[in-house]
Amino acid sequence: MEFDLWAQLPSVLPEVGLTTLAIVVLFADIYGSPAARRQVGTLSAIGMTLLALTPLIWQPDPALFEYGVLLWGGMVNYDPLSQIFKVMLLLAGAVTCLMAAGEKGVGDKGEFYLIVIVATLGGLMMSSASDLILVFVALETLSIPLYMLASFRRGDQRSAESGMKYFLYGAFASAIMLFGFSLLYGFTGTTNLAGIATALGAGPGDNLIAVMTALVMVVVGFGFKISAVPFHFWTPDVYEGAPTPVTAFVSVSSKAASFALLLRFLTAVFPADLLIAGVVIQDFWVNLLVVVSVVSMTLGNVVALRQSNIKRLLAYSSIAQAGYTLIGVAALQGLNDSLAVASVSFYMFMYIFTNLLVFGGVILFISATDSEEISDLAGLNRRSPWLALFITVGLLSLGGIPPTAGFFGKFFLFQAAVNANLVGLALIAVTNAIIALYYYLVVIKVMYVDVGPDDDKPIVLPRNYAWSLGITTLVVVLLGTIAVTPIYDWAALGAAGL
Amino acid sequence: MVSTGFSVLTAIIFIPIIAGVVILFLDRKNRDLVRGIGVTAASAALALSLAVFFGYDNYVKQAGGLLETQAAMLASGAELSGTQMFVDALAFEQRVVWVESLGIAYHVGVDGVSAPMVLLTGMVAVAGVLISWNIQDRLREFMAVFMFLVAGVFGVFIAVDLFMLFFFYELAIFPMYLLIAGWGWVKLREYAAMKLTLYILVGSVFALVGAVAMYFAAGDYFSGAGADVLRVAVDGGILPPDSGAYSWSIVHLTLAAENGAFAIDILGIAGLNFAKFWFPFMFLGFGVLAGVFPFHNWSPDGHVAAPTAVSMIHAGVLMKVGAFAALRCGMQLLPEGADTHLPWMVFLTLINVVYGALIAFRQRDFKYVIGFSSVSHMGLVSMGWATMNQTGMTGAGIQMFSHGAMTALFFGVVGMVYDRAHTRDIPSLGGFMKVMPWVGIAFVIGGLTSMGMPGLSGFIAEFPIFQGMWAASEQITLQLGGFQLSNYYSVLVVIAALGIVITAAYVLRVAGQVFFGEFDAERFHDVGNIEMTDRIVLIILGAPLIILGLYPPIMAPMIESGIRPLIALLGGG
Hints:
Structural class of chain B: mainly alpha
Radius of gyration of chain B: 23 Å
Number of helices of chain A: 22
Mean pLDDT of chain B: 87
Order of helices and strands of chain A: HHHHHEEHHHHHHHHEEHHHHHHHHH
Shape of chain A: globular
Order of helices and strands of chain B: HHHHEEHHHHHHHHHHHHHHHEEHHH
Oligomer: heterodimer
Distance between the termini of chain A: 22 Å
Strand content of chain B: under 5%
Number of domains of chain B: 1
Strand order of the largest sheet of chain A: 1-2
Low-confidence stretches of chain A: none
Strand order of the largest sheet of chain B: 1-2
Helix content of chain A: over 70%
Number of helices of chain B: 22
Number of strands of chain A: 4
Largest sheet of chain A: 2 strands, antiparallel
Distance between the termini of chain B: 27 Å
Strand content of chain A: under 5%
Low-confidence stretches of chain B: none
Number of strands of chain B: 4
Mean pLDDT of chain A: 89
Radius of gyration of chain A: 22 Å
Shape of chain B: globular
Structural class of chain A: mainly alpha
């Protein structure tokens, strides 16, 4: 096929833009005047917001993505699924940059934004990768900057420890995943995801156990990235030790990009019609994911009940949220897989904004009180009514209460599960949603009901936070009311390209 | 019938929401403006709900109106279509597609059962704002959250889309939590608020899973065997022209239920009938909020811990939300399950009635008496549903309104006494008739209503329920394996009547001790009469009890017309 640059360029336009932005930020930080340097964060945020428009403007041609269109030598997928994830990852990066701007020792260093941009670049590549090589490169492009970010406060022991832990666990998980990749390559002789499926199906069928082992190894790698149980051990420590803006970024970006890739990987490499020695491989990974999902949400929620540190609480809550989202991936076995794909995409879309909202509020709270204890949130409603309201909306969305986005997010997941005949899983999930609501409500209660010693000392809401939190709150509420339809329909398109 | 045009019901939902948001943006020191906006919004909602009530009343009674249509249908002897009757009964409809690909729509409308409930919500909303006039702590937040609560409750009553019903149901729960935890009775509030929230949510999320299962079962039916049924319904104007096979519309699901879409085996297990399996989830799931035994435990604590306005809306309206949703989503959509399960669930309702009354009799705390009396009276509502006949269910519909106004009045009375006497301990109160005659008279009126005295609304409600029980006795049998129980409803009704006797006993006891008897002038020297706002509250809530009692045709025919489609669906006459 003749190589047509102009036809292929739109598929990687955001990536090209991000690389350019990274270079601009680097130079602005090194050669800019002190006044200009202070604006690097704003520059990065604006840049990423503008780049988030490019996937909307250059949409893939519906006539092509019926069968998925591979560009750049079969490396890159150009389909609605990758587009929606690119938009959410770019917006997540932009909001992170805005929220980090006031953080001492983090937001006042230009290289912070550079690393966030590079990590986002990795996430973008993950959401469209369709070749084992690119999958791995993208994964590392996302992960390595995150290790650096976790230990960004070099002088702080907790931050350094957090970065080290994250790195060690992460390197280990990457190695296992890479081993799985190499097995798959060894069996099939190709690195193209769809090509692997074809070769596996055509093979002699005597390598069933080995293929399943490879599958499990890959799932382990993903399990680490999305912090699913039993690969979650790093999560609470890293979340607690890392600077809070970094925690916010880690909790959303790496998770969203990994879910995009997980959806694509499982449907491309182990599709429903793949039989090896008469065994339907899909049944195997669906059951595997059901177990991981149940264990993740149950353990995450139950342990979260006992937390007194707000960042650890959110860490366990994010483990549980990964469990919920896995329901949507397991529901891919249903007849109507667009429900499953749409539920996962929508959940991640709303989760990014919701979690950033909660963390944004927490950042502000921590910098005002110098405490991470939930009990010190007491009387926040009196000290800053707006801050308390923002955090409340975020927590309600995590808990799945209307009119916030979380209600629809959870509803779509449960619907996908019932459609895929996973009624039992849906019932377990709703039970978990109740447990989760308990600890979210406790935090809200502390803010609104409890009386603290500093009740009469108001917390001032800086302007950049007022804007970023206000807009995020608005997005969370809109995603739960009138903006559901466009986002959901867009997310449902994603199934067509798989 | 269905239009995308603006409906007055939309205004009823959105006025409180907008008021709540506006109040959040006000200066917290500007208490007068906060109260002013609150009372204006609630009054506007009340005025509109009065318009809806009387508009619907006219729709039912006018020449060629719903009553005549239904009577002609019944007389014709043709086979009745419950779906058709339900669609005919809906008025003030508005439908705007929300999530098209999933068949979710913003679809509002009222029928004969929900129109009185809308009015009740409006009444209690105004009363709640007025009785909270002098709240000292964070009035702004209180008022805003109260407005959101009111909007959520309105939403459930007027939803014609099952998804929307859930949306508003859950929307109402969080404000409830915050109001009780933040402004309730200090000793109990955190525990009670959390208990209440979790109980109600557990019920509703299980019901939600059931609803999702119904959605797919109905959709599978309409895209397969029932494609013709769907086309006929669309051509006949029962469903809107853009209806797909999968839809959350209650009309759509009712049509599926009537045509046997839910008479399937689930998970391929023979004998595990879909309707029979999911009915307990739907009926008891919502029944939790209606206080059905053994899931009533949250309710007395919740009522007692809540601030007065919230107790009023909670016992007065929110418990009816549960009973209403159990009717709409349980009995209407899974009539086959109702036939199977209600004959045993009636025992639960009996326990509600008698046990609730007995516990109420034993309480020393004034507010707990009222809390348990709610459990007892809501048992009568569920008992009315369990009769599955026209008389009993109409009685239950009236009881929802009657008890709503009555119990809100009771909680208002308790709040007024407690605010001035600073105690709710019944033995230490006494002679309050002298210092606050208005409150005393209101309590007596409410008390007589709860005993079911003729001339008050309680009689109009309770008598048909008992009559319906008696009539149902010959039709309903309970099959338990090889054992068959028949004619037992007549026994239950006798026992239930005993509950009314106990009710009379505790009402008279409380009235005698609190409002008559010796007044301790020394201890209660600073207790004065009530203010103008409080008097308005008592009138708003007390007057309907008398009006309805003296002139039942103001509401009874309407509720009757709303029950008829259900009877047709349940397959009885």
